[in-house]
Protein backbone atom coordinates (compact mmCIF):
# COMPACT_ATOMS: atom_id res chain seq x y z
CA UNK A 1 0.00 0.00 0.00
CA UNK A 2 2.79 2.45 0.89
CA UNK A 3 4.59 1.72 -2.38
CA UNK A 4 1.36 2.10 -4.37
CA UNK A 5 0.59 5.43 -2.70
CA UNK A 6 4.12 6.60 -3.43
CA UNK A 7 3.95 5.66 -7.11
CA UNK A 8 0.57 7.40 -7.46
CA UNK A 9 1.84 10.66 -5.97
CA UNK A 10 5.06 10.61 -8.00
CA UNK A 11 3.03 10.68 -11.21
CA UNK A 12 1.48 14.08 -10.38
CA UNK A 13 2.69 17.38 -11.83
CA UNK A 14 3.47 19.75 -8.97
CA UNK A 15 6.31 22.28 -9.03
CA UNK A 16 6.36 25.02 -6.39
CA UNK A 17 3.21 27.13 -6.65
CA UNK A 18 1.45 24.54 -8.84
CA UNK A 19 0.73 21.76 -6.34
CA UNK A 20 -2.98 21.42 -7.20
CA UNK A 21 -2.82 18.00 -8.88
CA UNK A 22 -0.89 16.55 -5.94
CA UNK A 23 -3.38 18.01 -3.46
CA UNK A 24 -6.32 16.65 -5.46
CA UNK A 25 -4.83 13.15 -5.49
CA UNK A 26 -4.10 13.28 -1.75
CA UNK A 27 -7.63 14.47 -1.05
CA UNK A 28 -8.94 11.50 -3.01
CA UNK A 29 -6.74 9.08 -1.03
CA UNK A 30 -7.61 10.60 2.37
CA UNK A 31 -11.36 11.05 1.89
CA UNK A 32 -13.21 8.99 4.50
CA UNK A 33 -10.10 8.35 6.60
CA UNK A 34 -9.80 11.73 8.36
CA UNK A 35 -12.13 14.01 10.31
CA UNK A 36 -11.60 17.10 8.17
CA UNK A 37 -9.96 18.16 4.90
CA UNK A 38 -9.40 21.71 3.73
CA UNK A 39 -7.16 23.79 1.50
CA UNK A 40 -5.84 27.16 2.66
CA UNK A 41 -4.95 30.29 0.70
CA UNK A 42 -1.37 29.09 0.12
CA UNK A 43 -2.54 25.85 -1.43
CA UNK A 44 -1.64 23.68 1.58
CA UNK A 45 -3.86 20.63 1.96
CA UNK A 46 -4.68 20.18 5.66
CA UNK A 47 -6.10 16.93 7.05
CA UNK A 48 -7.07 16.47 10.69
CA UNK A 49 -7.74 13.56 13.01
CA UNK A 50 -9.12 14.38 16.42
CA UNK A 51 -7.56 12.80 19.50
CA UNK A 52 -9.24 10.86 22.28
CA UNK A 53 -7.53 12.63 25.21
CA UNK A 54 -9.42 15.49 26.86
CA UNK A 55 -6.08 17.31 27.13
CA UNK A 56 -4.93 16.35 23.64
CA UNK A 57 -1.97 18.21 22.20
CA UNK A 58 -2.09 19.52 18.66
CA UNK A 59 0.63 17.79 16.67
CA UNK A 60 1.38 19.27 13.27
CA UNK A 61 3.09 16.97 10.77
CA UNK A 62 4.25 18.48 7.49
CA UNK A 63 5.40 17.02 4.18
CA UNK A 64 5.78 19.25 1.14
CA UNK A 65 3.99 18.55 -2.12
CA UNK A 66 6.09 20.70 -4.41
CA UNK A 67 9.22 19.79 -6.30
CA UNK A 68 11.82 21.72 -8.23
CA UNK A 69 11.23 22.99 -11.75
CA UNK A 70 12.36 25.25 -14.59
CA UNK A 71 10.29 28.33 -15.44
CA UNK A 72 10.33 29.71 -18.97
CA UNK A 73 11.81 33.23 -19.01
CA UNK A 74 12.12 33.79 -22.75
CA UNK A 75 11.45 32.10 -26.08
CA UNK A 76 14.16 32.57 -28.71
CA UNK A 77 13.33 33.23 -32.35
CA UNK A 78 14.47 29.67 -33.20
CA UNK A 79 11.92 28.23 -30.73
CA UNK A 80 14.25 27.30 -27.87
CA UNK A 81 13.06 28.04 -24.33
CA UNK A 82 15.29 29.89 -21.89
CA UNK A 83 14.65 29.02 -18.26
CA UNK A 84 15.34 29.91 -14.64
CA UNK A 85 15.25 27.66 -11.58
CA UNK A 86 12.24 27.19 -9.34
CA UNK A 87 13.98 25.88 -6.24
CA UNK A 88 17.43 24.32 -6.27
CA UNK A 89 18.11 22.93 -9.74
CA UNK A 90 21.75 21.81 -10.26
CA UNK A 91 22.49 22.61 -13.94
CA UNK A 92 24.71 19.54 -14.45
CA UNK A 93 21.92 17.27 -13.17
CA UNK A 94 19.35 18.95 -15.43
CA UNK A 95 21.29 18.55 -18.67
CA UNK A 96 20.04 15.96 -21.18
CA UNK A 97 16.87 15.32 -19.21
CA UNK A 98 13.34 14.74 -20.44
CA UNK A 99 10.99 17.39 -19.02
CA UNK A 100 7.25 17.98 -19.18
CA UNK A 101 4.97 20.99 -18.81
CA UNK A 102 1.56 21.03 -17.13
CA UNK A 103 -0.24 20.76 -20.48
CA UNK A 104 1.75 17.66 -21.40
CA UNK A 105 4.25 19.34 -23.72
CA UNK A 106 7.49 17.38 -23.64
CA UNK A 107 10.97 18.79 -23.99
CA UNK A 108 14.66 17.97 -23.86
CA UNK A 109 16.57 20.07 -21.33
CA UNK A 110 20.05 20.80 -22.65
CA UNK A 111 23.17 22.71 -21.67
CA UNK A 112 24.69 25.04 -24.25
CA UNK A 113 28.38 24.49 -25.14
CA UNK A 114 30.93 26.31 -23.00
CA UNK A 115 32.27 28.58 -25.72
CA UNK A 116 34.02 30.94 -23.30
CA UNK A 117 35.93 28.26 -21.43
CA UNK A 118 34.42 29.24 -18.09
CA UNK A 119 34.07 25.60 -17.09
CA UNK A 120 31.14 26.08 -14.71
CA UNK A 121 27.58 25.44 -15.80
CA UNK A 122 25.00 27.98 -14.64
CA UNK A 123 21.22 27.95 -14.86
CA UNK A 124 21.27 30.56 -17.64
CA UNK A 125 23.22 28.08 -19.79
CA UNK A 126 20.24 25.68 -19.83
CA UNK A 127 17.58 25.68 -22.54
CA UNK A 128 14.64 23.43 -23.42
CA UNK A 129 14.05 22.07 -26.91
CA UNK A 130 10.35 21.27 -27.50
CA UNK A 131 10.82 20.60 -31.21
CA UNK A 132 9.59 24.01 -32.31
CA UNK A 133 11.28 25.71 -35.27
CA UNK A 134 10.26 29.28 -34.39
CA UNK A 135 9.09 31.46 -31.51
CA UNK A 136 5.60 31.50 -33.00
CA UNK A 137 5.43 27.70 -33.15
CA UNK A 138 6.76 27.36 -29.59
CA UNK A 139 4.22 29.87 -28.25
CA UNK A 140 1.41 27.62 -29.44
CA UNK A 141 2.59 25.07 -26.86
CA UNK A 142 4.33 26.97 -24.06
CA UNK A 143 4.20 30.51 -22.68
CA UNK A 144 6.66 32.56 -20.64
CA UNK A 145 5.97 31.68 -16.99
CA UNK A 146 5.11 28.03 -17.65
CA UNK A 147 7.08 25.56 -15.53
CA UNK A 148 8.70 22.32 -16.67
CA UNK A 149 9.58 19.43 -14.35
CA UNK A 150 11.49 16.21 -14.84
CA UNK A 151 9.10 13.81 -16.57
CA UNK A 152 7.74 11.08 -14.25
CA UNK A 153 9.76 7.88 -14.41
CA UNK A 154 9.29 5.30 -11.62
CA UNK A 155 12.21 2.85 -11.70
CA UNK A 156 12.52 -0.19 -9.36
CA UNK A 157 16.14 -0.86 -8.36
CA UNK A 158 16.75 -4.29 -6.89
CA UNK A 159 14.42 -5.70 -4.22
CA UNK A 160 13.92 -2.69 -1.97
CA UNK A 161 14.86 0.51 -3.77
CA UNK A 162 13.05 2.79 -6.19
CA UNK A 163 14.11 5.84 -8.18
CA UNK A 164 12.07 8.73 -9.55
CA UNK A 165 11.98 12.47 -9.96
CA UNK A 166 10.02 14.30 -7.20
CA UNK A 167 10.93 11.72 -4.55
CA UNK A 168 11.71 14.92 -2.63
CA UNK A 169 9.20 15.12 -1.12
CA UNK A 170 6.45 12.86 -2.46
CA UNK A 171 7.89 9.95 -0.50
CA UNK A 172 7.14 11.88 2.71
CA UNK A 173 3.70 12.85 1.40
CA UNK A 174 2.99 9.15 0.88
CA UNK A 175 4.25 8.43 4.38
CA UNK A 176 2.05 11.10 5.95
CA UNK A 177 -0.95 9.96 3.91
CA UNK A 178 -0.50 6.41 5.16
CA UNK A 179 -0.09 7.62 8.76
CA UNK A 180 -3.37 9.53 8.61
CA UNK A 181 -5.07 6.52 7.05
CA UNK A 182 -3.92 4.01 9.67
CA UNK A 183 -3.74 6.09 12.88
CA UNK A 184 -6.78 5.21 15.00
CA UNK A 185 -7.65 6.04 18.58
CA UNK A 186 -4.55 8.20 19.06
CA UNK A 187 -4.69 10.49 22.08
CA UNK A 188 -3.46 13.65 20.32
CA UNK A 189 -5.04 15.88 17.71
CA UNK A 190 -3.17 15.33 14.43
CA UNK A 191 -2.90 18.10 11.84
CA UNK A 192 -1.33 16.75 8.67
CA UNK A 193 -0.13 19.56 6.41
CA UNK A 194 0.75 18.69 2.84
CA UNK A 195 2.59 21.93 2.29
CA UNK A 196 3.12 24.18 -0.71
CA UNK A 197 6.22 26.06 -1.84
CA UNK A 198 8.76 24.44 0.47
CA UNK A 199 11.44 24.45 -2.21
CA UNK A 200 11.31 28.24 -2.50
CA UNK A 201 11.45 29.19 1.19
CA UNK A 202 9.30 26.93 3.43
CA UNK A 203 6.38 29.25 2.65
CA UNK A 204 3.38 26.96 3.00
CA UNK A 205 4.42 25.39 6.29
CA UNK A 206 4.96 28.79 7.89
CA UNK A 207 1.43 29.90 7.08
CA UNK A 208 -0.06 26.56 8.15
CA UNK A 209 1.80 26.58 11.48
CA UNK A 210 0.65 30.13 12.21
CA UNK A 211 -2.97 29.08 11.70
CA UNK A 212 -2.81 25.66 13.40
CA UNK A 213 -0.99 26.89 16.54
CA UNK A 214 0.50 23.42 17.19
CA UNK A 215 1.97 22.33 20.49
CA UNK A 216 4.51 20.18 18.62
CA UNK A 217 5.71 20.19 15.02
CA UNK A 218 7.32 17.45 12.95
CA UNK A 219 8.55 17.74 9.39
CA UNK A 220 8.85 14.68 7.15
CA UNK A 221 11.38 15.10 4.38
CA UNK A 222 14.27 13.47 2.57
CA UNK A 223 17.88 13.94 3.56
CA UNK A 224 21.14 13.51 1.69
CA UNK A 225 23.30 10.40 1.48
CA UNK A 226 26.86 9.35 2.27
CA UNK A 227 27.09 5.84 0.83
CA UNK A 228 28.17 6.20 -2.79
CA UNK A 229 31.67 6.51 -4.33
CA UNK A 230 33.51 9.60 -3.06
CA UNK A 231 30.44 10.72 -1.09
CA UNK A 232 30.78 9.88 2.59
CA UNK A 233 28.97 12.77 4.31
CA UNK A 234 26.43 13.09 5.76
CA UNK A 235 26.87 9.83 7.64
CA UNK A 236 23.61 8.44 6.24
CA UNK A 237 23.06 5.13 4.45
CA UNK A 238 20.09 3.88 2.47
CA UNK A 239 18.41 0.89 4.08
CA UNK A 240 19.86 1.61 7.53
CA UNK A 241 16.63 3.17 8.80
CA UNK A 242 14.99 6.59 8.80
CA UNK A 243 17.02 9.45 10.25
CA UNK A 244 16.33 11.71 13.21
CA UNK A 245 17.59 15.15 12.28
CA UNK A 246 19.86 16.87 14.78
CA UNK A 247 20.26 20.00 12.65
CA UNK A 248 20.52 21.54 9.21
CA UNK A 249 20.77 25.14 8.02
CA UNK A 250 17.09 25.86 8.75
CA UNK A 251 16.60 24.21 12.13
CA UNK A 252 18.27 22.85 15.24
CA UNK A 253 15.84 20.19 16.35
CA UNK A 254 14.07 20.85 19.64
CA UNK A 255 15.28 18.32 22.25
CA UNK A 256 11.68 17.41 23.14
CA UNK A 257 10.88 16.29 19.59
CA UNK A 258 14.26 14.74 18.87
CA UNK A 259 14.20 12.64 22.04
CA UNK A 260 10.61 11.52 21.51
CA UNK A 261 11.56 10.30 18.05
CA UNK A 262 14.33 8.17 19.53
CA UNK A 263 11.87 6.82 22.13
CA UNK A 264 9.30 6.09 19.43
CA UNK A 265 11.88 4.23 17.37
CA UNK A 266 12.85 2.09 20.37
CA UNK A 267 9.19 1.34 21.12
CA UNK A 268 8.61 0.36 17.49
CA UNK A 269 11.77 -1.77 17.33
CA UNK A 270 13.18 0.32 14.49
CA UNK A 271 16.82 1.33 14.09
CA UNK A 272 17.19 5.01 13.25
CA UNK A 273 20.17 7.06 12.12
CA UNK A 274 21.36 10.39 13.54
CA UNK A 275 21.42 13.11 10.90
CA UNK A 276 23.60 16.21 10.84
CA UNK A 277 23.26 18.09 7.57
CA UNK A 278 25.60 21.00 6.88
CA UNK A 279 23.23 22.54 4.33
CA UNK A 280 19.61 22.49 3.24
CA UNK A 281 16.39 23.12 5.10
CA UNK A 282 12.92 21.74 5.68
CA UNK A 283 9.48 22.70 6.99
CA UNK A 284 10.56 22.28 10.62
CA UNK A 285 12.48 25.54 10.32
CA UNK A 286 9.27 27.44 9.54
CA UNK A 287 7.19 25.59 12.13
CA UNK A 288 9.72 26.14 14.92
CA UNK A 289 9.71 29.92 14.48
CA UNK A 290 5.96 30.35 14.08
CA UNK A 291 4.18 32.70 16.51
CA UNK A 292 5.98 32.47 19.86
CA UNK A 293 7.89 29.33 18.84
CA UNK A 294 7.00 25.65 18.54
CA UNK A 295 9.06 22.60 19.58
CA UNK A 296 9.88 21.07 16.21
CA UNK A 297 12.03 18.44 14.55
CA UNK A 298 12.33 16.24 11.51
CA UNK A 299 12.15 12.57 10.61
CA UNK A 300 14.07 12.07 7.37
CA UNK A 301 14.09 9.48 4.61
CA UNK A 302 17.63 8.85 3.24
CA UNK A 303 17.68 9.74 -0.46
CA UNK A 304 20.47 9.49 -3.00
CA UNK A 305 20.94 12.06 -5.79
CA UNK A 306 18.55 14.64 -4.30
CA UNK A 307 17.20 17.18 -6.83
CA UNK A 308 18.07 14.95 -9.76
CA UNK A 309 15.75 13.14 -12.16
CA UNK A 310 16.48 9.84 -10.39
CA UNK A 311 16.23 10.30 -6.64
CA UNK A 312 16.67 6.91 -4.94
CA UNK A 313 15.13 5.72 -1.67
CA UNK A 314 14.84 2.37 0.12
CA UNK A 315 11.31 1.21 0.93
CA UNK A 316 12.55 -0.40 4.15
CA UNK A 317 13.38 3.09 5.44
CA UNK A 318 9.85 4.20 4.53
CA UNK A 319 8.24 1.25 6.30
CA UNK A 320 10.37 1.83 9.39
CA UNK A 321 9.46 5.53 9.40
CA UNK A 322 5.75 4.71 9.38
CA UNK A 323 6.15 2.48 12.42
CA UNK A 324 8.10 5.21 14.24
CA UNK A 325 5.41 7.79 13.44
CA UNK A 326 2.59 5.60 14.73
CA UNK A 327 4.41 5.51 18.08
CA UNK A 328 5.49 9.16 18.03
CA UNK A 329 2.02 10.68 17.76
CA UNK A 330 1.11 9.24 21.18
CA UNK A 331 4.42 9.90 22.91
CA UNK A 332 4.63 13.69 22.55
Describe this protein's structure.
Helices cover 28% and strands 27% of the residues. It has 332 residues and is an alpha+beta fold. It folds into 2 domains: 2-67 and 166-331, Aminopeptidase, CATH 3.40.630.10; 69-150, Elongation Factor Tu (Ef-tu), domain 3. The protein has an 8-stranded mixed sheet with strand order 1-2-12-3-13-16-14-15, sandwiched between helices.
What labels describe this entry?
332 residues, Elongation Factor Tu (Ef-tu), domain 3, 6-stranded antiparallel barrel, alpha+beta, Aminopeptidase, 8-stranded mixed sheet
Order of helices and strands: HHEEEEEHEEEHEEEHEHEEHEHEEH
- Report the sheet-strand fraction: 25-35%
What is the fourth-level CATH superfamily of the largest domain? Zn peptidases
Q: Would you tell me which CATH topology of the largest domain applies?
A: Aminopeptidase
Helix content: 25-40%
List the helices and strands and how they pair.
Elements: H1 2-10, H2 20-30, E1 36-39, E2 45-49, E3 58-64, E4 69-75, E5 81-86, H3 91-94, E6 97-101, E7 106-111, E8 126-129, H4 135-139, E9 147-150, E10 155-157, E11 161-164, H5 167-182, E12 189-195, H6 203-212, E13 216-223, E14 243-247, H7 255-268, E15 273-276, H8 283-288, E16 296-302, E17 311-314, H9 315-331
Helix pairs in contact: 1-5, 5-9, 7-9
